[in-house]
């Protein structure tokens, strides 16, 4: 029996296995109203049939102007909550745990009417110049995260992931490269952490499920300009103390540049392992993890606790069944006998 495909209790969740569908934007809300569409029922339903232990629904904005694009999901009103509830119930009915990633894109909200950020520097020349957030806007957005978390709980999700990676608003506050504020939300690491601290504490008061945070542990910038790994470890420890149950570790996205680190299978996992050395809560890894044997090795050697699969589960919705074959894990059972006929043994 493999660790990858074995049941596990982690981060307050009872999971059928350690494979998690990574939240990936689908940009399929053609009506631009943030409401779940038939596509989402089919897309996530197929992954539920694959028997992934946890499905994290894609970036879901807490405000209309907080969407990455107008074709993203949202959770700022009751109509969005109502349809999300139906999707969550469907997926749970097929045996999966279900989460949702809450996000505000900040200066990366390309379609925003009034883009905002900690400071007024744009992501690149093709993006609008954001307005530096006032204290009132900071508190409004924090309240929007809390309100969306309430709606997520009402919709029945098992977990929430707060998107603090890839250059979106939470990440922008954490980064000295973007956050040039001189008030209580800028300057020192503790001050730059204040925005997310208050978001986490607010969400924790209204949501009793598993609460995760995604972080990018490098911005592909010179070491003297960006947060060091040690500073990210400190942030991880603060997040743990403030109520986060699991850290999902990625890299990049803050700046418009390609990776400055070698890219190979599992190339982001060393950052997850560094975070794992600093915290007691579980740590998830993501990125070029198509190979089930590599995933099993990372788990067996305690480099990470959970494996997030993104593009691999786009390419092959039966990735788990194929992994069971490669790992010689006969304990894995497909959704039903008909699906079992398609498994190579």
Name some characteristics of this structure.
345 residues, alpha/beta
Describe it.
The protein is of the alpha/beta class and 345 residues long. Helices cover 35% and strands 16% of the residues. It has helices spanning 38-49, 78-93, 135-155, 169-174, 189-206, 229-241, 269-276, 292-300, 311-315, 319-326, 337-340, and strands at 8-10, 13-15, 19-21, 54-61, 73-74, 97-103, 116-117, 131-132, 159-164, 210-216, 246-250, 283-286, 306-309. Helix 1 (38-49) packs parallel to helix 2 (78-93) and helix 2 packs across helix 3. The mean pLDDT is 97.
Percent of residues in helices: 25-40%
Calculate the terminal CA-CA distance, rounded to whole Å: 14 Å
Give the neighbour order of strands across the main sheet. Answer: 3-4-6-9-10-11-12-13
What do the pLDDT scores average to?
97
Category by helix and strand content = alpha/beta
State the total count of DSSP E strands.
13
What is the count of helical runs? 11
Helix and strand succession? EEEHEEHEEEHEHHEHEHEHEHHH
Topology:
Layout: E1 8-10, E2 13-15, E3 19-21, H1 38-49, E4 54-61, E5 73-74, H2 78-93, E6 97-103, E7 116-117, E8 131-132, H3 135-155, E9 159-164, H4 169-174, H5 189-206, E10 210-216, H6 229-241, E11 246-250, H7 269-276, E12 283-286, H8 292-300, E13 306-309, H9 311-315, H10 319-326, H11 337-340
Parallel strand pairs: 3-4, 3-13, 4-5, 4-6, 6-9, 7-8, 9-10, 10-11, 11-12, 12-13
Antiparallel strand pairs: 1-2
Helix pairs in contact: 1-2, 2-3, 3-5, 5-6
Brief rundown of the structure:
It is built from 11 helices and 13 strands.
